[in-house]
Design brief:
single chain, rod-shaped
């Protein structure tokens, strides 16, 4: 039974994939720099509030600091919201593009089969090796692997692929890996990196939204615990009295 075509795939050349990876890295770095700068402002405001309110007794001081910091973070989040959303959307689009392109880079053999497809040199070679025997085909395959000749390798693969596996003079996948393996691994890694950078970028934005990026979330949790502890202590004192 024939396999169904994957009609939802996107075609990207090896150069396109490299460019996509670079754009994804740049997009992630830009958001990271924006969040780092915003978090630095929050930390500076935190130190400023601590200094300005150092004479106010605790826990009133801690509550005032938490409220002031929360309000300031809200302003920063609003100011950067549109830009951050743009980076998140761009990352999602690039991730979708990478996923859609992956079916075109399943193996070195697939890449070799389409390289130089329709080229005059490949056509001439296929004519020349049409009647070649196993020994000559094996020798030419070794030459193609040693020189990285894509046209010769593709022509040889096309020549022996229709043969029964036990009668092929060489392993097509082995030849393809020798010629295209390095590039295939590079491109596959680049596509994976585009996906992982999109996930990392989303985590960065989420951490900033929740306050984890600058520790504000943890500070506020600690303050709530401190206030609850003080409240329980006061209740205990009243019972003893």
């Amino acid at each position: 039974m024939a396999k169904k075509l994957r009609l939802g795939t996107s075609w990207l050349t090896a150069g396109d994939v490299r460019s996509l990876r670079d754009k994804a890295q740049n997009n992630r770095d830009q958001l990271g720099s924006m969040i780092d700068a915003a978090s630095a402002k929050v930390n500076i405001r935190h130190e400023m509030l601590k200094s300005n309110l150092k004479d106010v007794p605790a826990p009133s001081r801690d509550v005032a600091i938490a409220r002031g910091l929360a309000a300031f973070r809200g302003e920063i989040k609003d100011q950067t919201a549109d830009a951050r959303t743009g980076h998140v959307r761009a990352a999602a689009e690039m991730r979708a593009t990478a996923i859609a392109a992956k079916p075109h880079y399943r193996s070195p053999a697939q890449m070799l089969a389409r390289y130089t497809l329709g080229s005059e040199k490949r056509s001439r070679i296929m004519q020349q090796i049409e009647n070649s025997g196993p020994a000559e085909l094996l020798s030419l395959a070794e030459l193609a692997a040693a020189t990285g000749d894509k046209e010769l390798g593709a022509a040889l693969a096309s020549r022996v692929f229709p043969m029964s596996p036990d009668k092929r003079p060489f392993d097509v996948n082995e030849l393809a890996d020798a010629i295209m393996g390095e590039e295939w691994r590079e491109i596959s890694k680049a596509l994976d990196e585009v996906e992982s950078m999109a996930v990392d970028l989303l985590r960065l934005d989420r951490d900033f939204e929740t306050g984890r990026a600058d520790g504000t979330n943890m500070i506020e949790q600690a303050l709530r615990q401190q206030q609850a502890g003080a409240l329980y202590a006061e209740d205990g004192d009243d019972d003893e009295a």
